[in-house]
Design the sequence.
């Protein structure tokens, strides 16, 4: 038995906005639908939108769903979330927004919220005349033949939901939940995304490292290094340190406690304090007594 929230059960037993929206001859109004999934795969959703064309506001929304408790509740929740939103605002809605509205979904049922997000995009793209991604077996892009799930779709779900395992991918988009022959391909995609994230982190870190610090950023970072790296060492030996001034690359400090009059205070300035600041702030810094 799945651990469903009260909201999920309520919208399953008492769904709102269920059914189709009839075509209309009203001026400045368009009716469109988007659909994802298939009955053969176990879940299918057709989402209907009534749009005021001059403002692109969703005046009404309804759904037709073939699926489980989570599929019906997710579809019903989505229609409530998007009413009176503009199309651009609706496109910003994620599957997590749907799940949050429901008070959460079991992870194994997160694919139902993803299905709602994709049906919404399909409807809006159709209205705007944008080609919707086709999950066909062309150029080796089909990963899961059991559910007709393409590589771009799996990659997108991995990135948007920060997935790290094949099991999570199956929970979110069903790929890998059939015969299992595609699980190796899903694992390869997970590794590729992780490698891309790592490469991006390295690039960002490099850009940050090469970007000059403002005077205030430099002072704040110097204070942080002194507090985290330098002071604990000095305090352990009965000494202490205060930042007195920063003028360009010259850092003036005051040694106190047991450090006062210590014969190795100059060595402490250079080998401990200056080395730490050069490593974490800037290699051009020099530390001198105030």
Sequence:
């Amino acid at each position: 038995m799945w651990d469903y929230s009260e909201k999920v059960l309520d919208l399953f037993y008492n769904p709102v906005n269920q059914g189709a929206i009839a075509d209309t001859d009203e001026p400045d109004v368009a009716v469109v639908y988007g659909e994802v999934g298939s009955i053969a795969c176990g879940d299918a959703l057709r989402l209907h939108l009534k749009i005021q064309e001059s403002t692109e506001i969703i005046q009404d929304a309804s759904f037709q769903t073939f699926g489980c408790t989570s599929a019906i509740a997710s579809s019903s929740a989505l229609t409530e979330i998007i009413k009176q939103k503009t199309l651009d605002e609706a496109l910003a809605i994620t599957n997590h927004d749907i799940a949050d509205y429901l008070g959460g979904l079991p992870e194994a049922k997160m694919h139902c919220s993803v299905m709602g997000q994709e049906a919404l995009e399909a409807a809006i793209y159709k209205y705007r005349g944008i080609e919707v991604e086709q999950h066909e077996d062309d150029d080796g892009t089909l990963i899961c033949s059991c559910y007709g799930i393409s590589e771009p779709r799996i990659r997108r779900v991995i990135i948007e939901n920060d997935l790290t395992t094949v099991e999570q991918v199956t929970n979110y988009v069903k790929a890998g939940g059939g015969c299992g022959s595609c699980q190796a391909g899903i694992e390869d995609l997970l590794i590729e995304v992780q490698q891309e994230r790592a490469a991006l982190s390295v690039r960002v870190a490099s850009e940050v490292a090469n970007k000059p610090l403002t005077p205030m950023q430099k002072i704040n970072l110097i204070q942080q290094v002194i507090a985290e790296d330098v002071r604990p060492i000095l305090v352990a030996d009965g000494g202490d340190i205060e930042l007195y001034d920063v003028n360009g690359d010259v850092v003036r400090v005051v040694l106190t406690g047991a450090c006062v009059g210590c014969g190795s205070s100059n060595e402490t300035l250079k080998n401990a304090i200056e080395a730490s600041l050069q490593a974490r702030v800037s290699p051009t810094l020099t530390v001198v007594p105030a």
